[in-house]
Amino acid sequence: MATATTPVGQTQPSKGDPPPVVFDFSQPPAIEGFTPLPRLKEETFKDKFIRKTKENPFVPIGCLGTAGALIYGLSAFRRGKTRQSQLLMRARIFAQGFTVVAIIVGVAATALKPKQ
């Protein structure tokens, strides 16, 4: 019968020994030639909204225009002013198109902007 042997100079770990520590989770890994960037301050929703609005102010303007036309158009429909309601629904479609174009232009401008 064949028995399992270990190479000379190596010991086979027994079942009672803990496994060797491969990685210390309390410290980041040490990678040669790599220095991680320092963590920036956590950005709140308000801060992010203000930053994004400054980067592309036409998107919130288009969203407000879309919502305004929708609400005003629905109220006109409720009052029975069908002609005004139709015109406001067309204005809503125009505002939605404006918002989509603003998003696309903003994404393109961000993609073409050189990295800092």
What oligomeric assembly is this protein in? single chain
* C-alpha-based Rg, rounded: 31 Å
**Separate helix tally:** 3
The chain-level structural class is mainly alpha
Q: What share of residues are in beta strands? A: under 5%
Helical proportion? 40-55%
Q: What is the string of SSEs from the N terminus onward?
A: HHH
Concise overview:
It is found in: Mitochondrion membrane. The protein is mainly alpha-helical and 116 residues long.
Could you describe the 3D structure shown?
- α2 (58-78) runs antiparallel to α3 (82-112).
- The chain has helices at 45-55, 58-78, 82-112.
- Helices cover 54% and strands 0% of the residues.
- It contains 3 helices and no strands.
- The protein has a domain at 45-112.
Please describe the topology of this protein:
Elements: H1 45-55, H2 58-78, H3 82-112
Biased composition (Polar residues): 1-14
Transmembrane segments: 58-77, 89-112
InterPro entries: Hypoxia_induced_domain, RCF1
